[in-house]
Every structure is written in structure tokens, then in C-alpha cells.
Amino acid sequence: FSTKDFGDTSAGPLYLQLHRRIVEAIASGRLKPGDHLPPEREMAAQTGLSRVTVRKGIEALVASGRLVQRRGSGTFVAHRVEKLEQALSLLTSFTEDMARRGKEVHSQWLSRGLYTPAPEEVMALGLGTSDQVTRLERVRSSDGVPLAIERASLSARVLPDPDIIDSSLYAALEKLGKRPVRAVQRISATNLTPKDADLLSVVPGVAGLKIERVSYLDNGQVVEFTRSIYRGDAYDFAVELKLAP
Ligand code: 16G
Questions:
Q1: pTM for the full model?
Q2: Do 177 and 219 contact (CB within 8 A), yes or no?
Q3: Tens digit of each residue's pLDDT (9 = 90 or more) over 84-94
Q4: What domains does the chain contain, in order, with CATH numbers?
Q5: Does ligand 1 come within 6 angstroms of the Cβ of 150?
Q6: InterPro entries, per this entry (predicted)?
């Protein structure tokens, strides 16, 4: 942008002119998802607008979800997602779901290791007093768009070495002969915390889905207890219903 782009008072308030220019730049592809915007001070110098006007324009774009602000690292063009229709009755993994859609999976590790279990992990996994838990915490992305934060807990007896997971947990379990065949899943609404919103590159407070999965082997043994936060605007869950008996 340059100073000659602004100043025509018949074109409406200056912050809306800036807003419009940025929307046009995104629509035309001049600004792409993930692009970093210059700091407010630099944009003010470039456009000849005051910092207050620049801030107002940016705030309006953040509110409408076109831009994302991450604490400490600045303002970015948001990733817009198409809704993914996801069948609820099939026990699939993130990697399998994305492969079926022809999308590439990327996982950012937040942590992984062996820990002393928390009470809810003891309950869900049916652990004994001296059992340890393997925790895997990842941000899962599809074609570069972060969609979910997954926190999986497994008994260390099922998965003693967290480092054997390459990209897919279910593929690793398959190799160990422990691929789950049944699961109970619970879904509830949540507003993303600032930290989770940061990890998913969306604005804090937007709708998210909290999904909990407990999966089992054929013999009834629990395999995983996974708590995930999914982007609320990215998924459309579908399930077939039968007439109640
Ligand atoms: C899915 C599961 C999660 C499982 C993961 C394994 C939901 C809500 N969660 O994302 O429980 O741990 O798949 O994926 O569906 P991976 O094999 O790609 O690591």
C-alpha cells in the first residue's frame, strides 16, 4: 500500500478504506494465508494513515476472522477452511481421514513422554497404582491448515516408547497388534482459550469442539484416552440414525 491509495474522503472513513484494501489483497491472492503483516507503525508510515486508524482497520479484520493476531509474533492472514464432513460412526484416525480426502497431514509435536498419570487418566485407562502413562500432544494440520490439538494418553504397557510414533499413532498401534476396533466418543462445545487459539491460528474465544475418545481392543482392553480440541468452523459431523426400538 502507499499513501496515494488513501485520502479520498468520498471513499468513506479511512479505516474502512484500509479494511477494503486488505480484503481485496486477500481476495486477489496478493496476501496469502499465513502471510505476516508489517507492524502497525510500519503500516502507518507506508500509508500515511495514523496508527489509530491502522489499528482500527486491523481490529475490524481480526473481528471478522480474516486476520489473526498472535501474541508476541504479530498479525497474519488467517487460514480459511472449507468444512470437512466427517462420519461419526467410523473408527478412523486423523491420518486415514485426510488420506481419504487426498490431503497431506502434518503434526507439530507439543510434547511426548512417559508420566505419572493424572486421576482422570487412571480412571479412563483403568491403570494400576504403579502404571505410567504415555502422553502424546500434537497440533494436527491438513494441507498446512491447523485443525486440531490432540492430547492422547495411553498406558505405558500399551505404548512403552513414545518415540516410536512417526506420524500416525494408529499405524504404530497396528504394528504392535493393538489397533483399536471400538471407541466411545463424546463431543461438546467450547470457546478456545488464548493458548489453544494461538496453536490453531484463530482468534481466541471462537467456537471449538472438545472431543474425547476412549478406544478399545477386541478383548475390551482400553487403548487410548484422547482429548482433542477441534476448530469449530472446520468440521461438519454426520451420523446415520436408526429408529429407537
Ligand atoms: C483421531 C482421533 C484420535 C486418534 C487419532 C490418531 C478424533 C476426535 N480423534 O484424530 O483419538 O488418536 O485420530 O491419528 O477423531 P493418527 O493415527 O493420525 O496419529
A1: 0.78
A2: no
A3: 999 999 999 99
A4: 3-77 (1.10.10.10), 84-238 (3.40.1410.10)
A5: yes
A6: Bact_HTH_transcr_reg, Chorismate_lyase_/UTRA_dom_sf, Tscrpt_reg_HTH_GntR, UTRA, WH-like_DNA-bd_sf, WH_DNA-bd_sf
